[in-house]
Every structure is written in C-alpha cells, then in structure tokens.
Amino acid sequence: MEKIKLKKLVLTAVFAAVAVVGSLFSFPVFGSKCAPVQHLINVLCAVILGPGYGVAAAFVSSLIRNLLGLGTLLAFPGSMCGALLAGLLYHYIKKLPAAYIGEVFGTAVIGGMLSYPVAAFIMGSKGAALFTFVVPFLISTAGGTLLAVLITVPLKQTGVLDKIKSELNS
C-alpha cells in the first residue's frame, strides 16, 4: 500500500513540475494569465491518478508559479476546480470525455466565478465581476484540454493508459 502511495506522490510531483515549466508558455487574456499546460496536466492527473492527487498537483503548481512570479492568485481556483471536477467525473463515469468536460466546466465556469472574490477582495481589482474570468479561463482550458485529447485518446487506444494505471496500482 505504501509503495502505491509513493508512486502516485512521485508522479503527482512530476506532473506539478511539468505544469510549472509549462506555465512559461502562458499568455494574458483580460487580466488573467492563461497557461494551457496546467489544464493538460489536470486531465492527465484526473485519468491516471484521480481527483485527490489532481487537486494536489494543481495546488502545488499554482503555489510554485505564484512564488516564482509566473502566475497570479487566480491560478488556484481555476486549476483546482478543473482538476477536482475532471477527476470526480472520470472516477465515476470512467470515460475520457467526462474528464474533458469536467476540466472545461470546472475551470471556466466554477473556477472563473470563484476567481471573482479572489480578484476583488484579495487582489483589489476594481473591474472584477462574477463572470469576468469565465471567458479567459475558457480559452485557456480549451487549449489545454485539446492537448489532453490529442495525448490521452491514442494512449487509451493503444492500451498504454491502462498499463500506466495498473503499474501505479501494483
């Protein structure tokens, strides 16, 4: 049991590191920094590791990105909501499109709306409103989720995805 947890923790750390490095390829949209690699990682974590490890990877990568000046506080609600919903939907439905839908809806709608209080009350943004971040987060998550589709579908079709999951659980 401990060996399985260690494997999953190590892979979670690797995914968080890839998300941080991937944030070097970000772009600004309406006051938020869009980092599509984070959303790719959210889907991979959802499918391979599950919701808890996905949220952990999203939190750690958001924290490191903020400490390094590569992101804003908006990274927390956006990435963590997407990771959680993608992981939960995949866990219960067991289909890749469930993870994709969870990532997009969780990040764009839920994370976008939860970013309002962060921007308005913590960051002091006067122009923030409830739906201000939905469109920028949607743009970011759409790109990252498309990358995830391009990676996870072939992995699933070739059986590599199932092999990775079985290796983690042995």
Automatic annotation (TrEMBL):
Transmembrane segments: 41-60, 67-93, 99-122, 129-153
Record's keyword annotation contains Zinc-finger: no
Keywords: Membrane, Transmembrane, Transmembrane helix
Pfam annotation, one family: ThiW
NCBIfam families assigned to the protein according to its UniProt record, in alphabetical order: thiW (TIGR02359)
Name of protein: Protein ThiW
The species this protein was found in: Eshraghiella crossota DSM 2876
Taxon lineage: Bacteria, Bacillati, Bacillota, Clostridia, Lachnospirales
